[in-house]
């Protein structure tokens, strides 16, 4: 058995495939941290100080090892020029495409994270958390959506997916994906420069639930590799997030080179373990809605124990929700998630 480590040491050792004392635990809990704040959504999610303080308060309450600091999926798209919608009780959304058609790709301007209220808030929140507890825990300031998801927001998902299926606009699609890759790299570098040990890249629509594995290989994988190559280093990791049942592409997700793969409860755990063992670290896969939000404490414990049993042997596993936790997730279920990592995840 290893001596007890700090949360930061534990996470970094896990990600680097080095010996560690137990399975670390992550919370994708940005909506939970502010569920009781009585402010309009726009004011709430643009307030970096408030978001940072809420993250630190949640850490003091739950004692998790890894923090994912964000304010939803719209920040980088806003920096690229997309219009943001704020709905009561919801994270910010992009509801309308920026481009009228893919023929307008050349008109896109260079993104300005400092001109985006959502990007500034995420950076301010991350900087606050790093200043307060960055020497103790693993802080991921989230650089938001990756190349494919960002391209979907800018062009509109229906337009992008239709043109991919038709196959007559590949040059414009690749031009758009090059633009969104560069946008992500520009934004992510700001988190690297402020001292984060890593960041997360969201690619929910790369899932086989949305596109075929062949399309993943053509339109997603090359750009996942591009951002990883540009950003990842010995002192900075990328966590590559894809939703849904990724069993059919998990081996190709490994090929991105990302040191962490965030995966969902729908993915076959044994398949994921075989594909990643000794190569990368898995983060997840507890169902954030069906188990953590709506499940009993007993169901949370059973899901966590099953995941630890399959995924923990040999290391390379961080226990956490497979995607963002609903704001009203019961705190007692989060307590049980964290407890399971500490009780059942010891090496």
Descriptive keywords:
single chain, 347 residues, alpha/beta, TIM Barrel, 15 helices, 48% helix, globular
Topology, number of strands: 10
- CATH class (first level) name: Alpha Beta
Domains (count): 1
Unreliable stretches: none
| CATH fold name | TIM Barrel
Mean pLDDT: 97
Rounded to the nearest angstrom, the distance between the terminal CA atoms is 6 Å
Q: What is the ordering of alpha helices and beta strands?
A: HEHHHEHEEHEHHHEHEHEHEHHEH
Beta content comes to 5-15%
CATH architecture: Alpha-Beta Barrel
Sketch the major β-sheet: 5 strands, parallel
Q: Quickly give the structural class.
A: alpha/beta
Which quaternary structure do these chains form? single chain
Spatial strand sequence of the major β-sheet:
6-7-8-9-10
Can you lay out the helices and strands and say which pair or pack?
Layout: H1 7-15, E1 26-27, H2 30-33, H3 41-45, H4 48-62, E2 66-69, H5 75-80, E3 84-85, E4 93-94, H6 117-133, E5 138-141, H7 147-155, H8 157-166, H9 170-193, E6 198-202, H10 213-231, E7 237-241, H11 250-254, E8 260-262, H12 269-276, E9 281-286, H13 288-293, H14 297-311, E10 317-321, H15 331-344
Parallel strand pairs: 1-2, 2-5, 6-7, 7-8, 8-9, 9-10
Antiparallel strand pairs: 3-4
Short description:
This protein is α/β, with parallel strands linked by helices and 347 residues long. The protein has helices at 7-15, 30-33, 41-45, 48-62, 75-80, 117-133, 147-155, 157-166, 170-193, 213-231, 250-254, 269-276, 288-293, 297-311, 331-344; strands at residues 26-27, 66-69, 84-85, 93-94, 138-141, 198-202, 237-241, 260-262, 281-286, 317-321.
């Amino acid at each position: 058995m290893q001596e007890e480590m700090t949360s930061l040491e534990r996470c970094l050792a896990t990600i680097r495939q080095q010996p560690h004392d137990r399975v670390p635990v992550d919370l994708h809990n940005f909506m939970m941290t502010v569920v009781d704040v009585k402010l309009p959504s726009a004011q709430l999610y643009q307030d970096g100080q408030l978001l940072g303080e809420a993250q630190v308060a949640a850490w003091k309450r739950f004692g998790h090892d890894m923090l994912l600091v964000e304010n939803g999926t719209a920040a980088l798209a806003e920096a690229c020029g997309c219009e943001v919608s704020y709905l009561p009780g919801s994270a910010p959304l992009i509801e309308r495409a920026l481009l009228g058609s893919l023929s307008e790709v050349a008109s896109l301007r260079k993104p300005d994270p400092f001109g985006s209220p959502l990007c500034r808030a995420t950076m301010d929140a991350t900087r606050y958390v790093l200043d307060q507890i960055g020497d103790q825990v693993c802080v991921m300031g989230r650089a938001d959506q990756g190349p494919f998801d960002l391209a979907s927001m800018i062009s509109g998902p229906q337009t992008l997916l239709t043109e991919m299926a038709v196959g007559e606009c590949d040059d414009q699609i690749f031009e758009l994906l090059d633009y969104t890759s560069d946008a992500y790299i520009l934004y992510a570098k700001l988190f690297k420069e402020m001292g984060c040990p890593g960041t997360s890249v969201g690619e929910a629509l790369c899932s086989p639930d949305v596109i075929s594995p062949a399309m993943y290989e053509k339109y997603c994988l090359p750009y996942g590799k591009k951002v990883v190559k540009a950003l990842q280093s010995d002192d900075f990791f990328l966590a590559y997030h894809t939703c849904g049942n990724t069993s059919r592409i998990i081996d190709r997700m490994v090929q991105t080179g990302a040191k962490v793969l965030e995966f969902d409860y729908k993915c076959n755990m044994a398949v994921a373990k075989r594909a990643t063992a000794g190569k990368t670290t898995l983060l997840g896969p507890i169902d954030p809605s069906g188990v953590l939000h709506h499940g009993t404490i007993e169901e949370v414990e059973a899901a966590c124990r099953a995941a630890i049993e399959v995924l923990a042997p040999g290391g390379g596993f961080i226990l956490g929700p497979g995607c963002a936790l609903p704001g009203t997730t019961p705190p007692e279920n989060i307590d049980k998630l964290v407890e399971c990592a500490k009780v059942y995840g010891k090496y």
